Inverse folding.
């Protein structure tokens, strides 16, 4: 590991973290192979790598969640054996896991106190925790309502709670595993502002992400993993997205999508005054009207929580609409004649749900079973009363080959594929039958850039093949690069439409924040957006 | 999931470890037996011989096994929809009622060939109906299936006592039993069946329903893993949100799963009422419904596992009875105790020996690397 | 009319007696299940404790020693349950079933071996039992119209364990919602990963939970054999463990609602007992079986009618596994 | 004495059921003590084992074989046909075969007498009955008891309760105690329990609340001296003893034996434990009634005769 030394060179202070020759195998899978890593105190250190490269595993080892088979961990120069999370916490390490470690049914304060209570009886601890919370919120402008139930907070807020948890335990090393995967640009900006102030206060941050622009925007150093090994360390300033991408995937990657002008056909989906009022009586989707025509991609931008998710679920028939009407391929649906998922599939409407683990897959099923979810009644998979095992397997194998799912094992448990590959399974299922209308939510969430490139290509291919595509994503970059038209949602209403050609992040950002004037817009958007806005490729 | 460098052959998991567990159970039981100076090894021998040693013994063992297969399958099917059906006892009871009423009404007029399918249908229908109410309440009113099924066990018992004592009892009879069925209402015993083919077998309560149990195992296996309905049941069980996304109506699936479950439990009635007693009577379920829970879970909710677990319990019931018979010092409660220990070691503590055994196996094979962590 | 009122009052009185073991068990189950460990072995632990207490009372003649023994034995079984489900990730339901069966056999075997009365223990005198205690001023107030009657008939005149049982409810509430242990208990039942990553041992926490479970079941059993009765009779729990479990679910795993559910079961039972043999004007005598089924039918109706969906602790029933 | 190899098959309640199984157990134990002849025994745990156990006994050359309880009648009939050489005895039921001795009791007569005693002792004019399960046998007890109570005075009130609907009803002292309490609350001051182990709770509660209780089947007066008013004796012990003894002494007779007051098959217990509770005129009245019953002057209606307790 030549790079290792070249980073350490010049730094007087002992490295905050030093990992020496870490090995970790899960049965046959060598998740980490002889990994070395040096993190300079008070810096933000990025780690990138394909899905399944071993990033989460490495961090789990550092946090004592897994135990390394061999290797050594030094914290602040001292050899520190870390067997349990307790050891890690004592060593001043805090971690924000990819899938949050919060107790949904408990309040924010309770979540933060958990494991760090000051006494056997809570009342005192609560008081102390509140005080401490206020301080932290002041110092790092991390504000959350201490009495809200963790489960009812939006993801961005939940993540802050996780960070607060770490800080509350006096962590001076903070690990974040794919923190931005679930965040909106706005939330990302805020997160980065927080990380920035943490860095200023001397906290060391390790940041795992699939998004190179974030690496470029915020990190000081970056390490690249591939196939369980550490393949490169770079000083961020001295590298480029392209180089990193290549190091990561091991080949050249196109970071931008090239596509011809759409050949638009007739209207496939037409929505009129679609309204959904939730139990609390709030109109989550509020008199929404729009059309999607064959051969075009319509993107829906918006800060998450402004009704896009609900909109998709309404159109796919998962949620019952409250009012309005929807025409899909000549069929008319309304509150009186509600849509239902089965019927929509019959109409060749495909749906890639936002949350693959919650909705798109059954983690305990074999991949091939997950790969027919929703189409299990299809004659192709059935022989009279029985399901046709061979057909299902061969069909799944084909899909895996087409969408380059790794490992290519139809019989493997769904849970044992990395999130990125799980996502590919869902896409393969929904795309490969050439639907007339495709509803897509967050198609590239938590997916590595190699896969992103691939997925985008496929979406464009669908559109060119004459499907109508409705794309919901919080990734403005994604929206802008794939869509032909962009609708912006705010508080359940569609507040504007922009042809993709004229769209840019700032304009969309303003509309998403529903900012009336430039000034107000800037107020909601200061600081970093410029910095992380797409550099012209 | 993750594969170990040293592949642990299946026979270790499915063969060796269970045997070791049962051995442990008998070891502990042995201590108790020893305390009341019964020779442990002889006891084990009596149990094994008494359960499998000769055709009659085997007959009784399989007869019990039949009941456990039915109730075990019942619990398992519900479990695949993540429903905990504790109501097997009541469903079996009512299923038996269905058989009884049907035969009492029809046996003067119809031949066996007609009555048999009707009886099977009735037991299924009654059992399913008794499960359908809790299912409906769970699906549409959100009342917890565990409570309702417990309650329905009690209600079933009350209903049966009422009917037997006030309605179905033969006038002037001391015991609350219906009249004996006519020949047409008897399910042939296996010894009779063998008799037809000129094979001489000692009589035992084992009857044709054991065949039906075998068929049910096959049907359940196909139903759960090879039909779209089974697929839907498993989907709802594993991830309800995903089920909704897939256009599956969890409510309907709950009803389906519970009705199938209840029907299977109801078949106990075929074995007991039509197969053995040839009359309707009280308490013929004798706790088979409850034991079915342990059977299903020990059999990992898979027909093959359930058959094995049922055989184990069948052995304990029949062999245990023989032990109590042969050894005056061994009371029936002693037998119950031994049963408890076996369930404890081969069920609850099933994984206890897995680690050590696999490690030693690996050592024997001569590899030093630790095998994979087992699945939870 | 007046005697109807008295009858009702007396049913309430009976309700308390019948509900007491249910309350103990429901609280016991609450600790275990809130930590994510299903406990259908309430029945078995209660039965074992009943036997142990009765035996100890018979030989030592001390109610307190008996209580201690009952609790001790119940704890041992609780630890066995923990050993199977927590340490060895065994199936929690199977383990529960095993314990229930084991105990129903073993109590009789030992009973016969020790007392040679077919599994029954010698019945013990008042000195070795928890006998009713009249609260101060009960007599004095007895003839004050309403309150007096209520106080002397209903509140006063129960044995100590009844009062303990109902004191356990606020105590449980306080422990679960107001202490560090309670916080961690609620957390581990919902999301053990969160607890683990917070540097707390999931196993230790769950063991503590089943321990509390054991203690409370010990009380329940002791109450059965030497407070409510004066001897142990085989299978004397007669399914109350399961009823308590139902009450716990009915109360959505929360102390006070669970207690109310227990009281409801107790009350329906008491009423059913008093309704036996009464004649309804038109219909005439109601079949006794109908009355006996009444509590269960009513429970189902109530459950379907008024109680919303009960959501179990998320992690319940799943052993905590993490690759190392 | 003839070479005998006696055996007994107890029913589900088990030989310690505080009821007729236990009675039989006591009887055969007495036989063992007196003759020194060992006997085989088995306690059935489910419906199917009855036949299995009886047959197994016969196969092992046991003779005579006692089957306890009406529930064993069908099984015993079957097995007795298979083994015509083996002598069988069945208690509480009639199996009409040349090699079977059927022993049935006039429980209603014994219950009649204890019903009288209860009514005579009661100050409130209300007496209680707690049965195990609502089955004909128990109704037979209840019916006789009621007649006895009413015989003392037309307007004696008889409160009846049944414990449950599952076999657990025979072993539920807690419920027994609650039933007793509820009856005492209703003014009852003497309770007759025919409920096996459940009775334990009834008696205990009677003692705790200073009321009276009446035992059943075997003499249970000793359990709670001063509380146990008396016990309705059903001499299954004698019947079982005689069955073995007759075989042993070579004077076995098959056929139906109906044991009532006349044959001392049923009766009521008077011993040092309850003599203080039974006054002389009570005793006189009861003995008179007993005599009348034997003489046929009083006809005690048998529930089984009409499947109802209307007399
Ligand atoms: N618990 C586990 N059991 C078995 N194998 C595992 C486990 N966790 C990780 N692995 C293996 O280790 C490899 C690395 O996993 P890891 O989660 O570190 O990847 P990653 O870099 O986080 O991927 P992603 O970018 O999708 O998060 C995976 O490909 C997987 O095969
Ligand atoms: N129980 C398990 N058994 C085997 N492998 C597992 C298990 N759990 C996770 N893995 C492996 O761990 C790796 C990461 O799993 P995880 O679900 O964290 O992926 P992910 O981090 O969500 O991926 P992404 O970063 O694309 O979202 C996967 O490659 C998967 O194969
Ligand atoms: Mg990861
Ligand atoms: Mg990941």
């Amino acid at each position: 590991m030549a790079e290792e030394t070249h980073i350490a060179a010049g730094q007087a202070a002992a490295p905050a973290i030093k990992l020496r020759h870490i090995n970790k195998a899960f049965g046959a899978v060598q998740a980490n192979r002889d990994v070395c890593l040096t993190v300079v105190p008070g810096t933000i250190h990025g780690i990138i790598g394909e899905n399944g490269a071993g990033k989460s595993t490495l961090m789990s080892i550092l946090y004592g969640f897994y135990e390394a088979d061999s290797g050594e961990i030094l914290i602040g120069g001292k050899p520190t054996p870390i067997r349990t999370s307790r050891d890690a916490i004592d060593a001043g390490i805090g971690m924000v896991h990819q899938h949050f470690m919060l107790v949904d049914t408990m309040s924010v304060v309770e979540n933060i106190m958990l494991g760090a209570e000051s006494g056997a009886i809570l009342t005192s601890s609560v008081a102390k925790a509140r005080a401490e919370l206020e301080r932290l919120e002041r110092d790092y402008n991390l504000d959350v309502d201490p009495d809200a139930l963790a489960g009812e907070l939006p993801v961005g807020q939940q993540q802050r709670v996780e960070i607060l948890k770490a800080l509350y335990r006096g962590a001076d090393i903070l690990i974040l595993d794919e923190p931005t995967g679930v965040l909106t640009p706005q939330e990302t900006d805020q997160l980065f502002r927080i990380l920035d102030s943490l860095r200023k206060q001397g906290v060391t941050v390790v940041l795992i992400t699939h998004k190179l622009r974030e690496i470029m925007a915020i990190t000081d150093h970056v390490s690249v993993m591939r196939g369980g090994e550490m393949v490169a360390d770079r000083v961020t300033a001295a590298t480029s997205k392209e180089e990193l991408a290549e190091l990561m995937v091991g080949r050249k990657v196109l970071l931008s999508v090239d596509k011809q002008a759409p050949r638009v056909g007739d209207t496939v989906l037409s929505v009129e005054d679609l309204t959904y009022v939730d139990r609390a009586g709030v109109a989550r989707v509020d008199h929404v009207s729009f059309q999607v025509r064959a051969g075009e991609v319509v993107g829906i931008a918006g800060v998450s929580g402004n009704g896009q998710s609900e909109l998709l679920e309404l159109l796919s028939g998962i949620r019952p609409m409250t009012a309005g009407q929807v025409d899909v391929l000549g069929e008319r649906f309304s509150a009186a004649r509600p849509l239902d998922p089965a019927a929509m599939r019959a109409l060749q409407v495909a749906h890639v749900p936002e949350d693959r683990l919650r909705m798109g897959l059954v983690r305990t099923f074999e991949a091939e079973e997950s790969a027919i979810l929703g189409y299990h009644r299809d004659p192709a998979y059935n022989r009279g009363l029985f399901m046709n095992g061979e057909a299902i397997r061969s069909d799944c194998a084909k899909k895996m080959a087409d969408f380059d799912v790794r490992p290519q094992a139809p019989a493997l448990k769904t849970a044992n594929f990395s999130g990125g590959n799980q996502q590919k399974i869902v896409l393969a299922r929904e795309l490969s039958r050439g639907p007339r209308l495709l509803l897509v939510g967050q198609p590239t969430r938590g997916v590595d850039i190699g896969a992103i490139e691939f997925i985008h290509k496929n979406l464009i291919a669908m559109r060119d093949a004459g499907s109508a595509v409705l794309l919901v994503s919080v990734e403005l970059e994604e929206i802008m690069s794939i869509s032909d038209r962009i609708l912006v949602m705010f508080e359940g209403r569609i507040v504007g439409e922009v042809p993709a050609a004229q769209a840019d992040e700032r304009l969309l950002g303003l509309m998403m924040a529903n900012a009336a004037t430039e000034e107000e817009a800037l107020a909601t958007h200061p600081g970093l957006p410029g910095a992380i806005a797409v550099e012209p490729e | 999931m993750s594969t170990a460098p040293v592949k642990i052959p299946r026979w270790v998991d499915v063969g060796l470890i269970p045997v070791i567990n049962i051995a442990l159970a008998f070891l502990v039981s042995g201590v108790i037996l020893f305390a009341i100076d019964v020779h442990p090894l002889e006891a084990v021998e009596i149990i094994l011989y008494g359960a499998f040693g000769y055709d009659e013994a085997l007959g009784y063992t399989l007869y019990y096994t039949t009941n456990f297969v039915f109730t075990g399958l019942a619990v398992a099917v519900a479990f695949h929809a993540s429903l905990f059906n504790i109501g097997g006892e009541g469903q079996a009871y009512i299923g038996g009622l269905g058989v009884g009423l049907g035969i009492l009404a029809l046996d003067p007029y119809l031949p066996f060939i007609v009555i048999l399918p009707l009886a099977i249908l009735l037991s299924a229908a009654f059992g399913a109906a008794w499960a359908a109410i809790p299912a409906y309440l769970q699906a549409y009113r959100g009342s917890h299936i565990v409570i309702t099924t417990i309650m329905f066990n009690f209600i079933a018992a009350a209903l049966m006592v009422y009917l037997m004592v006030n309605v179905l009892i033969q006038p002037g009879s001391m015991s609350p039993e219906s009249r004996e069925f006519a020949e047409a209402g008897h399910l042939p015993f296996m010894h009779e069946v063998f008799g037809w083919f000129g094979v001489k077998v000692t009589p035992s309560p084992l009857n044709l329903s054991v065949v039906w149990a075998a068929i049910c195992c096959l049907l359940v296996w196909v139903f759960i893993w090879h039909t779209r309905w089974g697929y839907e049941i498993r989907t709802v069980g594993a991830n309800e949100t995903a089920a909704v996304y897939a256009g599956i109506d969890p409510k309907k699936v709950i009803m389906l799963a519970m009705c199938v479950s209840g029907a299977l439990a109801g078949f106990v009635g075929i074995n007991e009422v039509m197969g053995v007693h040839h009359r309707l009577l009280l308490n013929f379920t004798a706790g088979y419904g409850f034991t079915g829970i342990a059977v299903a879970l020990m059999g990992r909710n898979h027909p093959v596992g359930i058959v094995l677990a049922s055989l184990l319990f069948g052995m304990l019931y029949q062999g245990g009875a023989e032990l109590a018979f042969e050894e005056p010092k061994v009371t029936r409660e002693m037998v119950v105790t031994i049963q408890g220990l076996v369930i404890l070691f081969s069920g609850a503590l099933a994984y206890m020996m897995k680690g050590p055994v696999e490690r030693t196996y690996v050592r024997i094979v001569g590899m030093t690397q630790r095998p994979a962590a087992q699945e939870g | 009319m007046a005697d109807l009122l008295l009858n009702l009052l007396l049913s309430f009185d009976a309700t308390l007696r019948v509900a007491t073991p249910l309350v103990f068990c429901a609280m016991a189950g609450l600790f275990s299940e809130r930590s994510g460990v299903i406990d259908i072995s309430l029945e078995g632990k209660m039965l074992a404790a009943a036997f142990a207490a009765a035996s100890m009372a018979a030989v030592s003649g001390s109610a307190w020693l008996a209580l201690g023994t009952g609790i001790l034995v119940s704890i041992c079984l609780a630890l066995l349950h923990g050993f199977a489900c927590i340490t060895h990730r065994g199936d929690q339901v199977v383990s529960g079933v095993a314990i229930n069966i084991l105990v129903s056999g073993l109590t009789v075997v030992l009973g016969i071996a020790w007392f040679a009365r077919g599994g029954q223990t010698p019945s013990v005198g008042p000195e070795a039992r928890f006998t009713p205690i009249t609260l101060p001023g009960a007599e004095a107030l007895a003839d004050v119209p309403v309150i007096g009657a209520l106080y002397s008939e209903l509140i006063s005149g129960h044995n100590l364990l009844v009062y303990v049982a109902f004191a356990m409810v606020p105590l449980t509430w306080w422990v679960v919602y107001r202490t560090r242990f309670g916080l961690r208990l609620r957390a581990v039942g919902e999301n053990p990963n969160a607890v683990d990553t917070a540097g707390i041992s999931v196993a230790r926490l769950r063991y503590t939970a089943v321990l509390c479970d054991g203690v409370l079941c010990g009380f329940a059993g002791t109450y059965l054999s030497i407070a409510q009765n004066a001897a142990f009779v085989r299978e004397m729990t007669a399914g109350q463990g399961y009823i308590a479990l139902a009450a716990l679910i009915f109360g959505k795993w929360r102390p006070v609602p669970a207690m109310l559910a227990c009281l409801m079961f107790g009350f329906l039972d008491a009423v059913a007992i008093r309704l036996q043999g009464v004649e309804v004007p038109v219909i005439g005598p109601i079949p006794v079986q109908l009355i006996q089924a009444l509590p269960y039918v009513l429970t189902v109706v109530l459950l379907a009618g008024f109680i919303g969906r009960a959501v179990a602790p998320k992690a319940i029933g799943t052993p905590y596994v993490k690759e190392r | 004495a003839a070479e005998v190899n006696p055996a007994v098959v107890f029913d589900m309640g088990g030989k310690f059921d505080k009821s007729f199984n236990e009675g039989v157990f006591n009887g055969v134990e007495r036989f063992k003590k007196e003759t020194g002849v060992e006997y085989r025994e088995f306690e059935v745990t489910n419906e199917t084992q009855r036949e299995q156990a009886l047959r197994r006994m016969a196969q092992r050359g046991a003779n005579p074989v006692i089957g306890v309880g009406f529930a064993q009648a069908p099984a015993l009939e079957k097995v007795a046909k298979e083994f015509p050489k083996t002598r069988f005895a069945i208690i509480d039921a009639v199996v009409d075969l040349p090699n079977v001795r059927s022993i049935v009791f006039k429980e209603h007569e014994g219950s009649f007498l204890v019903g009288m005693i209860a009514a005579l002792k009661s100050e409130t004019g209300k007496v209680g009955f707690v049965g195990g399960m609502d089955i004909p046998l128990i109704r037979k007890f209840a019916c006789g008891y009621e007649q006895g109570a009413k015989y003392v005075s037309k307007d004696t009130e008889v409160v009846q309760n049944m414990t449950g609907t599952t076999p657990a009803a025979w072993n539920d002292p807690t419920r027994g105690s609650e039933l007793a309490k509820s009856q005492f609350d209703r003014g009852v001051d003497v309770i007759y329990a025919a409920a096996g182990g459940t009775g334990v709770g009834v008696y205990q509660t009677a003692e705790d609340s200073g009321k009276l209780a009446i035992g059943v089947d075997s003499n249970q007066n000793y359990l709670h001296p001063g509380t146990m008013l008396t016990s309705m004796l059903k001499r299954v012990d004698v019947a079982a003893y005689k069955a073995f003894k007759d075989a042993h002494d070579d004077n076995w007779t098959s056929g139906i034996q109906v044991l009532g007051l006349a044959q001392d098959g049923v009766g009521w217990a008077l011993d040092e434990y309850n003599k203080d509770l039974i006054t002389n005129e009570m005793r006189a009245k009861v003995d008179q009634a007993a005599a009348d019953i034997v003489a046929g002057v009083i006809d005690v209606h048998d529930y089984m005769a009409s499947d109802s307790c209307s007399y």
Summary: Residues A 26, 29, 31, 49, 51-57, 418-420; B 2; C 323 surround adenosine-5'-triphosphate (ligand 1) (CB under 6 Å). The two ends of chain D are 47 Å apart (CA to CA).
